[in-house]
Task: inverse folding
């Protein structure tokens, strides 16, 4: 797999390489699991939903909150930040399990003919 920024030819969505396939396990010309057409812009982040007002507020507030905690909060600010980050880390595994259990996945794409 490649990073999404490696398949873009600029900043415009119109310059994205769109005729791509994903070939899991590819090695020395062998495709053990087949080839799958890329159906979405590989550089698209998140779940494909349009950004909401909340996204903008969070992105705007995060630097202010971090600055206030770390620079103006002193030692206790750093402790609060450390606790928040530790709790986020501990929540990752249960949240991932919940997401996999409750999310509905689309049917797998048909394998493209090779050669």
Result:
């Amino acid at each position: 797999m490649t990073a999404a920024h490696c398949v873009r030819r600029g900043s415009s969505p119109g310059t994205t390489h769109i005729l791509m396939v994903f070939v899991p396990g590819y090695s020395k010309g062998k495709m053990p699991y087949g080839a799958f057409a890329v159906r979405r812009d590989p550089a698209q982040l998140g779940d494909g939903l349009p950004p909401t007002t909340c996204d903008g507020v969070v992105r705007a507030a995060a630097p202010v909150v971090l600055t206030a905690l770390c620079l103006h909060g002193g030692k206790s600010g750093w402790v609060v930040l450390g606790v928040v980050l530790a709790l986020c880390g501990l929540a990752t595994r249960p949240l991932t399990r919940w997401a996999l259990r409750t999310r509905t996945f689309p049917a797998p794409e048909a394998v493209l003919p090779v050669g």
